What we know:
Elements: H1 8-20, E1 31-36, E2 39-45, H2 55-58, H3 78-88, E3 97-102, H4 106-115, E4 119-124, H5 126-130, H6 136-143, E5 147-150
Parallel strand pairs: 3-4, 4-5
Antiparallel strand pairs: 1-2, 1-3
Family: Belongs to the cytidine and deoxycytidylate deaminase family.
Cofactor: Zn(2+)
GO molecular function: dCMP deaminase activity; zinc ion binding
Amino acid sequence: MLVEKPSFGNIFMNLASDLAKRSHCVKAQVGAVLTKDTRIISIGYNGPPAGTHNCDEEYPETGCARDAKGSCSLALHAEENAILYASKNGTDLEGATLYVTLSPCLSCARIIFSTGIKKVLYKNSYAQYKGLDKDEGVEFLNRFGVETQQVLM
């Protein structure tokens, strides 16, 4: 009997969703998986830099202070954490694919483009989450040749 196997895309997006549950952010939990071919090269989730504090422990009711755009003033985004970890370990990201549970913000999109990541698959819209008119990060990536696609699961 032939058993249908899940696609690597589904496996990676499910892993990103599971990683999001590791986040200590009180407001949003986001996970990311960086891959090349069928191999995981890095993972990340949103939260303050290692060695600082955990928002859900230090500010359990409100989360940490907000910046001018209403975002966490202390946290790294899931994409940033995955990219920084890969970079710290000397991993080449040229041609990699990023699976992330929330589409990249504009700032993360610039970093994604600059590292040579060629494809971004995301589950939910950052613009919709933030109540914005458009997904600036997705538009930036598309404009400069990084393939982006929302994955509905």
